[in-house]
Amino acid sequence: MNELHVRCDWANGDELMAAYHDGEWGVPLHDDRALFELLTLEGAQAGLSWQTVLNKRQGYRDAFHNFDIERVAQMDAGDVERLMLNPGIIRNRAKIISTIRNARLVLAVQREFGSFDAFLWQFVQGRPIVTRPKSLADIAAKSPESDILSKALLKRGFKFVGSTICYAFMQATGMVDDHVEGCFRSTARAGGD
Predict the structure, then answer these.
(1) I want to staple 118 with a disulfide (CB 3.0 to 4.6 A). Which of 3, 113, 139, 187 is the partner?
(2) Beta bridge partners of 130
(3) Strands, E, within the chain: which ranges?
(4) Residue 191 has pLDDT above 90, yes or no
């Protein structure tokens, strides 16, 4: 990316973070596998930095069958024990178990709604919520929509889906576009998706 591009402050100073910001964050995502991946990664971030999780993203892809939802849903207690020894992921038993559980629940959502995508995007009426905060300090940690999404996921049995995690997930998947004023991605999206 051209160094003249001004980006959101959180993405400066690290190549991986900059690439994620420039190519993914705030871009509408409608692929169930990729949505499940980001839900897992945002849950894994709880108590940690996004940079820590992003640095382990490939390890997660390797450990969880590239986020093939059906394959992850079939994982069992033996897989949990094996993953607890895997330095490529965050070795937190509750987070590993929740990934497997959440995969099973995504399959149930797909049966009910046709896709995980259709279920998720209803919470923003199918269109990204575009904000233009003036600075990083002005970006919300949660919203009424993330509160509602969180409650809906929790009611279905999902884990690591509190409102703050859901808001970060909504940002990651483009359900919310919080690129700050002056960021080159905010002007790139000014004309639409």
Answers:
(1) 113
(2) 177
(3) 129-130, 176-177
(4) no
Does residue 20 carry a catalytic annotation?
Answer: yes
Cβ neighbours around 49 below 10 Å, total:
11
User: What is the arithmetic mean of pLDDT over 161-182?
Assistant: 97
> Is 42 known to be catalytic?
yes
Residues in Cβ contact with 156 at an 8 Å cutoff, skipping those fewer than 6 apart:
105, 108, 109
Q: Which residue has the tokens 């919203």?
A: 143
Compute the residue count for the chain.
Answer: 193
Q: Render pLDDT for 34-69 as a digit per residue (tens, 0 to 9).
A: 999 999 999 999 999 999 999 999 999 999 999 999
Helical packing angle, 163-172 and 144-156, nearest 10°: 110
Residue of 10, 15, 25, 42 marked catalytic: 42
DSSP symbol at 124: G
Of the candidates 19, 67, 14, 65, the one whose C-alpha atom is nearest the C-alpha of residue 43 is 67
Tens-digit pLDDT profile for residues 137-146: 999 999 999 9
Helix (H) or strand (E) holding 73: helix 69-73
CATH of domain 15-188: 1.10.340.30
Catalytic entry in 50, 60, 121, 167: 50
Instruction: Give the torsion through C-alpha atoms of 159, 160, 161, 167, to 10 deg.
Output: -170
